[in-house]
Amino acid sequence: LAVQLASQARDSVSADRPIYIAGSISTVRDAIPFKHTEGNRLGRGTANEQIPAAKSKANYREQAQLLAEAGVDLIMLEMMVDRERAGYAISAALETGLPTWIGLSFQREKVHGTLRLWGGAQFDGWFGQMTDVLGDRIPRSSLVSVMHTLTEDVEESLHLIKKEWSGLLGAYGHSGEFAMPQWTFDTSATAQAYLEHARRWVPTGAQVIGGCCGIGPEHISLIRQAL
């Protein structure tokens, strides 16, 4: 249904350029146990246990196939924080034959201030382990993005990825704060402030730039005009 709605929205505008629809798949709920509390919209119960590997692989394959059959133009894998589960998701996306983009989310560790993958995992060697799991199946034509990462941390995150990835790069940061059970955008970056950050992403090699939580049409419009 989501793909159908996106298709209707695309067909309702007269664009002067192609408009592509991406289907999103994430590992974050599968990879990181979440504590559920009263009022938490993420779910019910006392804890979310990690899904068994066999079931996880089947889930990713089913979701990727459903998106492909519904008519998406590419698969966007988002918040790939756990190497093992990311391997399942990447494999499932590649099986569809669609272009596959990989999104990595970073957050700054509070004590030492180092950047780690969302949830606390170290990034070093991430692509090396993916090669061990998938071989050379990740095509160089794939795009790897820094996404759902604080806007001010995106540039450094891009440099971390470039140490292990020589292919295409993208960036779409977030702005605002997460206060259970939802995001609040009172402190979101202005369109001009976001543009100034985006200007620094381009020299790192980022060729596709967008926005995540807290970034809206006014931000994207200004970026399109200015970059």
Structural overview:
This protein has 227 residues and is α/β, with parallel strands linked by helices. It is 37% helix and 20% strand. The chain is built from eight helices and ten strands. The strands form three sheets. A six-stranded parallel sheet has the order 1-2-3-6-7-10. The chain has a two-stranded antiparallel ribbon with strand order 4-5. Strands 8-9 form a two-stranded antiparallel ribbon. Strand 2, helix 4 (83-95) and strand 3 form a beta-alpha-beta unit.
Percent range for β-strand residues: 15-25%
Walk across the major sheet and give the strand order.
Answer: 1-2-3-6-7-10
Total helices: the number is: 8
Mean pLDDT: 86
- The helix/strand series, from N terminus to C terminus, equals HEHHEHEEEHEHEEEHEH
Extract low-pLDDT stretches. 34-48
What characteristic shape results from the CA principal axes?
globular
From the structure provided, what is the oligomeric state, counting identical versus distinct chains?
single chain
- Count of β-strands: 10
Supply Rg: 18 Å
Percentage of residues in helical conformation: 25-40%
**Spatial separation of the terminal alpha carbons:** 34 Å
Strand-pairing-aware structural class: alpha/beta
Largest sheet: 6 strands, parallel
